[in-house]
Every structure is written in structure tokens, then in C-alpha cells.
Specification:
By secondary structure, the chain is an all-alpha fold. About 75% of the residues lie in helices and about 0% in strands. The protein is built from nine helices and no strands. It starts with a helix and ends with a helix.
Length: about 160
């Protein structure tokens, strides 16, 4: 997409997302994609954010699958939207499920915030404390500086496992 088309498409999708109209946001993205225009990662992230706001993790997941199938670039912004959609939809196991391959297979450099979201999500369901601790270890291996939020998320996950 070029200049004004990109801005207009992104603005339209963001507006749909604010109103929790995820179907319209995805339809707009699809319309632009089938018009032989190549929406940027920012446009895709806006559509995924609409899914996140509407708590539609399945559609966000399908959007990621579509991106990968098309060979489109997947970046840390998209990674954050997928994990956020899982968290808001209370699909905490899926948050972990998406984070691991994004950092290893897709070589996306997620910042500590993405790890904290996934670790916090792991702490919301009992029995996932190992995932939260694994995320701390993975973040350390990625040479990310752990924060108080990192430690609190893991601690909370361990506490809830009792």
C-alpha cells in the first residue's frame, strides 16, 4: 500500500477496533489484501488489535496463520497483539503457545513486556507456574533485563499453584 491508502486503511481498521467491530476490521484488511495491495505489518497489527479488544483470540490466531501463509513479515507488534488477544480472552495456555515459536522459529525479538504479559497470563490459571518460570528463563536467555513485573508475574503463578 502506498501513503494515503495505508493511512486511510489503518485509520478505518483502528476505528472499527475501538468499537469492537472485529469482523469489519478483518473484512477491510481482506478487501485491501485481495485488491493486490500489500498491507504493512502496522495495518495487520491494527486488525489484530481489533480482535484483541473484542476478546477474539481465535480470529487473531487465524490472522497470524494467514500472515505466515502469505509470507508476510511478522514482528514484535503482531506478537504482542496475539498474546494480548489470548490474555484478554482468558486463553492463557495459548499465550504461551504463541510466544515460544515467535521467539525461536520466527526469530522475532520480543521485548520484556511480551514475556511479562505471557507470564502474567500463565499465572491466571493454576498449574501453569512452570510456564511462567520457563518464560523468565527464556527471557534471560534472550538477554532481556527482568523487571519487578517479571518477578511478580512468576511469583504470582507459583503462589496460585498451591
Amino acid at each position: 500500500m502506498q501513503g494515503n491508502d495505508l493511512q486511510q486503511c489503518t485509520s478505518t481498521i483502528v476505528a472499527f477496533g475501538r468499537r469492537h467491530c472485529w469482523e469489519e476490521a478483518l473484512a477491510t484488511l481482506e478487501e485491501k489484501s485481495t485488491a493486490r495491495l500489500r498491507p504493512s505489518a502496522i495495518v495487520h497489527a491494527a486488525a489484530l488489535q481489533a480482535c484483541e479488544r473484542a476478546h477474539r483470540w481465535e480470529q487473531a490466531s487465524a490472522g497470524l496463520g494467514s500472515l505466515l501463509q502469505k509470507g508476510a513479515p511478522v514482528n514484535t507488534l503482531i506478537c504482542g497483539r496475539i498474546i494480548g488477544a489470548c490474555d484478554k480472552s482468558m486463553q492463557w495456555r495459548w499465550a504461551w503457545h504463541f510466544l515460544a515459536p515467535m521467539t525461536s522459529t520466527l526469530s522475532i525479538e520480543c521485548d520484556i513486556v511480551k514475556y511479562n504479559i505471557a507470564a502474567g497470563a500463565s499465572g491466571k490459571e493454576s498449574g501453569l507456574w512452570q510456564h511462567a518460570l520457563g518464560l523468565l528463563q527464556l527471557a534471560t536467555c534472550e538477554r532481556l533485563e527482568l523487571t519487578d513485573v517479571s518477578y511478580n508475574s512468576a511469583s504470582s503463578a507459583c503462589e496460585k499453584s498451591r
